Amino acid sequence: MQPRTDIANPKILLVDDNPKNLFAIELLLKKLKVDIFKAASGNEALELMLHHNFSLVLLDVQMPEMDGIEVASIMKEDEKTKQIPIIFITAFGKEETQVFKGYESGAVDYLFKPIDENILLSKVKIFIELDTKKRELEIAKQAAEAASLAKSDFLASMSHEIRTPMNAIIGMADLLRSTKLTPEQEEYVEISQNAGENLLHVINDILDISKIESGKLELEHVEFDLYKLVDTTCEILAMGAHQKGLEFLYHINDGVPMNLIGDPNRLRQILLNLMGNAIKFTSEGEVVLRLEKKRGENGVLTLLLSVADTGIGIPDEKREKIFESFSQADSSTTRRFGGTGLGLTISKRLIEKMGGSIYVESGEGKGSTFFFTANFEIQKEQKGRVKKFEKMRDMRGLNFLVVDDNSTNRIILREMLKSWGVKITEAEDGPSALAEIEKAKQNSSPFDLLLLDCHMPGMDGFEVAKRIKDEPFLSGIAVMMLTSDNREGHIARAKGVGIEQYMVKPIKRSSLYHSILTLLDKRIAGKGGSPIEESEKITQHVSSLHILLAEDDRINQTVSQRILEKEGHKITIASNGREAIEALDAKEFDLILMDVNMPQLDGCEATIKIREKEQKTGKHIPIIAMTALAFKEDKSRCLEAGMDDFVSKPVRAEELYEVIGKYA
Prior knowledge:
By secondary structure, the protein is of the alpha/beta class. The chain has 21 helices and 22 strands. Strands 6, 7, 8, 9, 10, 11 and 12 form a 7-stranded mixed beta sheet that branches. Strands 2-1-3-4-5 form a 5-stranded parallel beta sheet, sandwiched between helices. Helix 5 packs across helix 17 (554-565). The two termini are 53 Å apart.
């Protein structure tokens, strides 16, 4: 944006107790395009400064009552006047003591009487030009801030306008998938739903970068479980990695506190960006997340995290470019792999807000490793989940065999098992594993458990397990399979070859501990033989509710109503906040789903009125906001209005059911 050109003339203040001197200087300055103000004393000058913003003060040193040195000293103590440049005018000679005294009081220059016209005009011009540039920059800054605010408002509005139809597209696709479809129809619905999710990801990225640039993005300060966050984040990405046949692993070093205080959602966003990119740009090999404690003092943890892959890598000359907005290492990657080019920029800005930094080590064709640090507070009370299992059973002294062709995976398993006191032997393929099992039996130190990778070259995990089952001298060892590819039929095949536990990578530390103990306890109790434990989804039964749905968009009314009716809820629809209040006066409801942006009376205004009425009745009906607005302040506005919870559009059925379940 170009700076404004209609800047007012600079204002110059002349201060001298002699009217002839004032007139003479004013006459000389008439040649410049300036507005001139005059004061005959120090007090009069200070009074004028309270009401005008001067670009320059020409100040006589010798004046009665208050001399120029005193005026300058007072100016430098006041916030409004301390930045105004002062040129002293004096009839004294150029004695060093007098000059130094003037500079110490705040002068920037001196003019000596009799005043030379050319020297006066040249010095005044310099300060006038500097002040003009300063004011131009200030106007440009204000214009840029206004433009940034307008952009943020525009993007927030567009977010709402785009998310509203997106809610219908994704919601209807979700409902359609729950009906009986032909394979061809299922494919079309899946493509449509994936396209909708990708578009939503683009919208979120653009909104995030807008919030960061406008300074609106604020980090939360809440308690969270770091281990659980890493577990659930890796679960989200695991399927994509497994579909590409990648090893997808993570490892949290001993000594990393579990219970922290910070912004878990933004940390998850950073991990999703970095690991998602690693999976996207890796066609074979592995993606590994590592977390370790860099520093921990005075209740603050500096966490060092790294995401390593064996993907396409980044050329040396492109490493810095990848952190710029809308940039990728090569423009062709956008066409090949998709994406906005904003993920790394957003991650870098978020990391910096967390007091950390990010850098990458990479080489073209050699994979990449992104390292970043972030600061979190440590909760005073650490609630260890693994410690609960340690109380149930001590694994120290047990003898385990780890079989995996991937060295990184062996390292991670080795670190986990060593921390529990387990004796570990490693093998990198099936034949080596069988040889180690035979050797252990001959030495009368058989293995208590075999941790067996599914996919290995030559002899895979299923063949190794079958050999153990078929050979009498090998039988008796407990077998747990670890796989990065949970294909249909694998569990049935595993049962057939005597595998007793089956886990999908990345392996959670707590889940592995619990599964090992469960398996070994069953063997001790004589219950071993076939018990692969398939996880069962436990769903809470929520009784049928009478829900008031306040939503002005007809398509979104239909989508939300169908989603809710599938769970047996009874729905009454209101098209705006006023209708919602009228419906509430006429009937009793168990819960209200309240859209925020509605005509006549929006969701927040309606909620305020409902809460005012409840103060008289003593009742409280749960109100859940449903909104396409995505800024953190939008959520705060909903909660401040009296709403109990918040669901973002597009509304996912599972998310909506989960939130409703809190208040059922």
